């Protein structure tokens, strides 16, 4: 177990190093730096030069890289190039909570709807609920999140006017963003749970539980669900990465002051230090989550052996 | 062993001549000659590809998918030609028109014809989807093929590299490459190429590992074929089924990413009309002119639907094991 965790941590560290290095050099190879003489016409060249030296942009790239790695090892992601007097750390601290709230609610919603829906469609195979979940799943897999978001926004905010169009703060503001983010995960979890439940319900231990006279509810709850939920647990890791994609759209559309919105803005403004910092943060966060999910999976399922 | 009669020597596998002779008459009867023919194969032998084709033809959803994609291709090729407008042609006398005879899908806030723009978007989406899927197939097949075929330490090293790249969500790489290369169609294709081959490589490797110890490979080795020839002539063609299925699912994903990136404003830049930029453009006055959103949104969804249906059909036809 310890060996497994250490091995995974080592692999994650290498992945991080590759990501940081690749990101750093890509950002510095981009034609046009944030303080290009061409872009800021009204700034005298001397000021630009000072700015460049203040941010260390006049040093050779490898020296900048070492400097960056050094400050990164102290947890310091540097200053934003475009937002005056803002450090990347401050941006992350101010943006991450909103993203985390919306994301966590989406995970809860996806599990709370997807798992029961999957179980019911497996138990009542061919019933109307099974068909409904099949249709929902097809839509959820094929329809890009931004279209779902626009559709919900149009129907519930503009036409019916029962939910606010955008903003952040009250619970009603969260409804559409969370539904958007959870939509396609719900579809996927439903199908996953359904097929795994069908698989499990054919197993001998289900038959013997029934033969022993265990009530139908207990057969499903204790023997069926506990065994069939495992694939759903493994899906939580990739799910976090999917929510990341979604957060870029949802936070932009609904004006949620989250990290995803900062990131997209930083990309279009070419705010290199912010792009670099948020990429590193996201990469580390997602890798950590995946690792935790994998460990949790191995603890839940005793059949999994801790050999890479 | 089932015990059916109380014949002497029941434990033995076969009855001796003498034992058969003492069987009571009437307990058994002779088979008519026709019954002996049951194990003769009458059906002509069907090859893997013929079987797959007939299965695919029998799948209504997949066939519908093919029809829709054919129509989309027709729209992409002929759409901008059959209408007398250019995709970036502005006309301020006809801004924000609803669909009518002159402008089939209406016009946007600059008076540009939405039908032509959607058709132009189809060109971009289909090109991105097919090009990205094809390039990734080539990279994935070469990488996975070498990894699986060579095996040993090379395989381990190559797969560790895949693991390392895969640990980071592909979206981050894609966005970084987009920043680096700028907002063009080819940058999206290149960005997708950074990470999309990983899945294909894994599948090809697994497939090659599972077939490389089969007898026909041994036979090829025995008659002295070179390793490269075995890989190219025997192993890769025999793993083509799963490869095609994986690649078919890459197309809608690539189309999704193009639309997604363009929608959040870091994909293809205006005035080029991609479905994502069209959807993004229409956001500001969606309440008044919902048709500007409707057509690009429909185009994206229908295309991704169709490709997914084709993918499902191909998976059932070519590689039933992949079915979830």
What features would you describe in this structure?
By secondary structure, chain A is mainly alpha-helical. Chain A has a domain at 98-268: MetI-like (MetI-like fold, Orthogonal Bundle). Helices cover 76% and strands 0% of the residues of chain A. Chain A has 12 helices and no strands. In chain A, helix 4 crosses helix 7, helix 4 (88-123) crosses helix 11 (259-269) and helix 7 packs antiparallel against helix 10. Chain A is flat. The relative contact order of chain A is 0.14. The two termini of chain B are 38 Å apart. Chain B is mainly α and 324 residues long. The longest helix of chain B is centred in the middle third of the chain and has 37 residues, at 114-150. Chain B has a single domain, classed as MetI-like fold, CATH 1.10.3720. Chain B has 14 helices and no strands. Classes of the chains: A mainly alpha (308), B mainly alpha (324). The A-B interface holds A 11-12, 14-15, 18-19, 22-23, 26-27, 29-30, 138, 141-147, 150-151, 153-154, 158, 191-192, 195, 241, 244-245, 248-249, 252-253, 263-264, 267-268, 270, 275, 279, 282-283, 286-287, 290 and B 160, 163-165, 167-169, 171-173, 175-180, 252, 256, 259-260, 263-266, 276, 279, 283, 286-287, 290, 293, 297, 300-301, 304-305, 308, 324.
């Amino acid at each position: 177990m310890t060996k497994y965790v250490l091995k995974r941590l080592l692999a994650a560290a290498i992945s991080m190093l590759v990501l940081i290095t690749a990101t750093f050099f890509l950002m510095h190879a981009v034609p046009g730096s944030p303080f290009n003489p061409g872009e800021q016409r009204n700034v005298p060249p001397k000021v630009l030069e000072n700015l460049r030296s203040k941010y260390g942009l006049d040093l050779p790239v490898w020296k900048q890289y070492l400097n960056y790695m050094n400050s990164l090892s102290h947890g310091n992601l540097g200053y934003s190039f475009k937002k005056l007097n803002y450090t990347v750390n401050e941006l992350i601290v101010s943006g991450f909570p909103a993203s985390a709230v919306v994301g966590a609610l989406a995970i809860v919603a996806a599990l709370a709807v997807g798992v029961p829906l999957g179980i019911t469609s497996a138990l009542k195979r061919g019933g109307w609920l099974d068909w409904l979940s099949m249709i929902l799943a097809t839509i959820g897999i094929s329809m890009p999140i931004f279209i779902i978001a626009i559709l919900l926004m149009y129907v519930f905010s503009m036409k019916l006017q029962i939910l606010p169009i955008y903003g952040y703060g009250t619970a009603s503001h969260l409804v559409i963003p969370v539904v958007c983010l959870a939509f396609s995960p719900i579809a996927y979890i439903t199908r996953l749970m359904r097929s795994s439940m069908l698989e499990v319900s054919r197993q001998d231990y289900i038959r013997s539980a029934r033969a022993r006279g265990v009530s139908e509810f207990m057969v499903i709850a204790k023997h069926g669900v506990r065994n069939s939920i495992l694939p759903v647990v493994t899906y939580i890791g990739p799910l976090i990465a999917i929510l990341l994609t979604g957060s870029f759209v949802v936070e932009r559309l609904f004006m949620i002051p989250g990290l995803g919105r900062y990131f997209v803005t930083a990309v279009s403004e070419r705010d290199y230090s912010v792009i670099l910092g948020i990429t590193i943060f996201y990469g580390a966060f997602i890798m950590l989550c995946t690792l935790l999910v994998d460990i949790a999976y191995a603890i839940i399922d005793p059949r999994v052996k801790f050999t890479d | 062993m089932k015990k059916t009669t109380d014949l002497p020597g029941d434990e033995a596998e076969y009855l001796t001549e003498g034992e058969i002779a003492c069987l009571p008459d009437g307990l058994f009867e002779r088979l008519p000659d026709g019954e002996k023919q049951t194990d003769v194969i009458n059906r002509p032998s069907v090859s893997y590809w013929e079987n797959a084709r007939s299965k695919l033809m029998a799948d209504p959803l997949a066939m519908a998918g093919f029809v829709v994609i054919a129509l989309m291709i027709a729209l992409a090729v002929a759409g901008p030609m059959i209408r007398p407008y250019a995709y970036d042609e502005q006309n301020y006398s006809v801004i924000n028109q609803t669909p009518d005879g002159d402008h089939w899908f209406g016009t946007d806030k600059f008076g540009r014809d939405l039908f032509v723009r959607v058709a132009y978007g189809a060109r971009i989406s289909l090109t991105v989807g097919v090009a990205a899927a094809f390039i990734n197939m080539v990279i994935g097949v070469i990488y996975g093929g070498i990894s699986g075929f060579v095996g040993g330490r090379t395989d381990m090293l190559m797969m560790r590299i895949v693991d390392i790249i895969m640990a980071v969500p592909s979206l981050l790489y894609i966005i970084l490459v987009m920043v680096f290369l700028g907002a063009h169609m080819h940058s999206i294709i290149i960005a997708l190429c950074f990470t999309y081959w990983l899945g294909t490589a894994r599948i090809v490797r697994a497939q090659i590992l599972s077939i490389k110890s089969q007898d026909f490979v041994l036979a090829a080795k025995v008659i002295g074929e070179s390793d490269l020839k075995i890989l190219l002539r025997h192993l890769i063609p025999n793993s083509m089924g799963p490869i095609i299925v994986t690649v078919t699912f890459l197309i809608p994903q690539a189309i999704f990413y193009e639309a997604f990136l363009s929608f959040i404003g870091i994909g293809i830049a205006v005035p080029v009309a991609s479905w994502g930029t069209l959807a993004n453009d229409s956001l500001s006055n969606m309440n008044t002119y919902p048709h500007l959103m409707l057509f690009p949104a429909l185009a994206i969804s229908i295309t991704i639907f169709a490709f997914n249906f084709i993918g499902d059909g191909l998976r059932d036809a070519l590689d039933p094991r992949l079915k979830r």
